[in-house]
Amino acid sequence: MSPAITVVGYGPAAHRLVQRLHHHGHRGPVTVFGGEPQPAYNRAQLLSVLDGTLPSGALALGPLPPGAEVRTGSRITAVDPGRRLLRDGDGGVHPYEVLVLATGSRPVLPPLSGAGDRRLPDIRVPHTLAGAEPVDRGPVVVVGGGLRGTEAAYALGRAGHEVTLVHPGARPMHRLLDDRAGALVTALLGEAGVAVETGRRAVAVEPGKIVLDDGRLLAAGTLLLCTGSEPDTVLARTARLAVGHGIVVDDRLRTGDPHIHALGDCVEAPGRHATLASAWDQADALARTLSGGDGRHEPAGQVVVRPRLPALAALGP
Fold this sequence. Notes:
The protein is α/β, with parallel strands linked by helices. Helix content is 20%, strand content 26%. The protein has 2 domains: 5-107 and 229-301, FAD/NAD(P)-binding domain; 122-227, FAD/NAD(P)-binding domain (3-Layer(bba) Sandwich). The chain has 6 helices and 22 strands. A 5-stranded parallel sheet has the order 3-2-1-7-19, with no helix packed on it. It has a 5-stranded parallel sheet with strand order 9-16-10-11-12. It has a 3-stranded antiparallel sheet with strand order 4-5-6. Helix 1 runs parallel beside helix 6.
């Protein structure tokens, strides 16, 4: 008999897992808890909502197989592995047989003095749909010139917004690109009308302004914080699971608890890359395991990251 499976987190990895469980013949109950009010959506396309290219509904990943129960807007706050119970933010308790943590990543935010003032610019973190609503107040300041921040600045510049990109590195995407490629990105941003402030940090916000670490002020109606993300291990820590950079799992995506698995952006797995393709591969492997097969996950080799910039790709190890 197929075990009852409970999934915490309802992003692309969780959505794919439930689909593949059905594909591999699992017919036991499947319950999914999602903290956001929406069903699963394609997070890779959030910038297309931000710049007005796509409506938010276009990102939906579609229905799950029959029999899967989805509880959106239900945030799980603790795991009791001894009694195999989940606790939610409303005080509810939910038993589980087999638990899969698919809690994804969470944004890393910079310290900004004065960020609680309601008179400030519209401060956004485009990590979820709630933070990726179309920009309607300018000028726009994007803080963080990694992959996501650079893409956001370019897309908004192309859409006609007045945009400034603030980045502490010597060039945009400095951890991914060499000097030559970085110069190309800077030129592409300039062609899109984006002003680039490298070697600078935003340290404070004031009504209608951003304060840089050299004391200069930048006008801002909207502030986008694109300063990176990290695996969301908060729930795993409540279960006292091993956590390094992410939730530690083996090549079958098992944690140290025999009843708890994990996948996606929240894990630290052999050869893991934080890409949608990697998460889908993990979902297929775990679905095979939970359906009674051999679901060893074989990590990908070279990873190609294709930014939303013309004629540019970054190769990973």
